[in-house]
Amino acid sequence: MSDNHLKKQRIAKIQSLKEMGIDPFANAFQRSATFEELQTKHKILPAGESSEGEVRIAGRIRAIRNSYMFIVLQDHTASIQVFCSKEMQEKLKDFLPLLDVGDILGVFGNIRRTPRGELTVDASAFQILTKSLATLPEKYHGLEDVETRYRKRYLDLIMNDEAKKRFLVRSRCIQAIRSWLLEKDFLEVETPMLHTLAGGAVAKPFVTHHNTLDCNLYLRIAPELYLKKLIIGGLSDKVFEMNRCFRNEGVSSRHNPEFTTIELYQAYANYHDIMDLTENMMSDVVQKVCGQKEITYQGQKISFSSPWKRISMLDSIQEVTGINFEDHMDLQEAHSAAKSLGVNSLASEWGKVVADVFDSVVEHTLIQPTHITDLPVAVSPLSKKHPEAPHLTERFETFMAGFEVANAFSELSDPIDQLERFQKKSDGDDHLPDLDFVEALEYGMPPTGGMGLGIDRFVMLLSDAPSIRDVIAFPTLKPIK
Which of 231, 245, 266, 363 is most exposed, with minimal Cβ within 10 Å? Predict the structure, then answer.
């Protein structure tokens, strides 16, 4: 039977309900408990016993068995069985056939545990709360098509407990990070999502146009420059923002055009301090969300217990390949060394060649939490230079499961150096030097450490999700024409 024919049948049932004086789309329903609360409250109720007192429950019908004798309801916490006696079936013989799997139903009744041990509500009355028109996928196979799961997340959540659990993990993760930072006296702030310049990171921006101001604006790539202005202004020595960023670049299992990050800045700190903070925060959040500091991600055990490995980018390359790129500081030599490793870099600077080699040869080997430190200046336009190696910066990136989850550095506070780097990195209209930020630096920013953490990737790890699309409720997808 086609979906269109089934839909027509359900529309006819709506009309029948209305003719019986029943509103198939109720305004409200006062529940006495969720299904999980009932399971917990009556955990020790013996098999064959009943509990006194009426309950009022509501949920979506997931199964109808034995001519409406048993109806399985699902709410956001769990499932529960409803029993409809023969007397009730006879009394409601005109009403019950108008129910379908997918409808949202209110039930009044008493709690008992069946001789087989299943908690059950003995129904004394029903109230249809929402009549569904669309047919749910077949229960035992769930919603298997990945594309449909992303496009129709509401259906994915109805059919797949795994999807619901991942988004609950996401919510708990965000709450735990926020609580951790607030306990450490960080101030939560908000900064603009629309920027007059594309800044804060090197990436391709989304461009929009403001009609009244008659100017182009950019969806923010990162909130970094605004947050550092708050540090300069002395609003607080510690600030953070958790919100969306947008990059008009590729889509993959680890990249979505809009994504959630947390960025934090701490005055009078450097990248070593922020490294400690990052490690402690992530470790404590994993303990809070998962109940332990070891997780399994895609079959690999990952331990968040301290200490995490700390190694410079150059040393990590040498550890994997045996090649020390500081022996190949000449650009041509660096290209030759990269080529010997199978990396055909087109970069025009030594530091970018090093970064290309790391991305190709080292990154995927970093399974346990690892801080990669001292990145080249060429790929770190906002980082303070390393005092003992001016071609490097006081920067680290945190990797685990073979991909990056955090990026941090001692913030560049020299306005002259910052302007020179902005001018060097200028890329047409999209990446003009942010002279307003340079002017803010001229008033003096205290030594500051900053860090950005990708919430989506972190949640991927904690929920064992293979793709970033599994942890973003509504990922960006190409429209269906």
Answer: 363
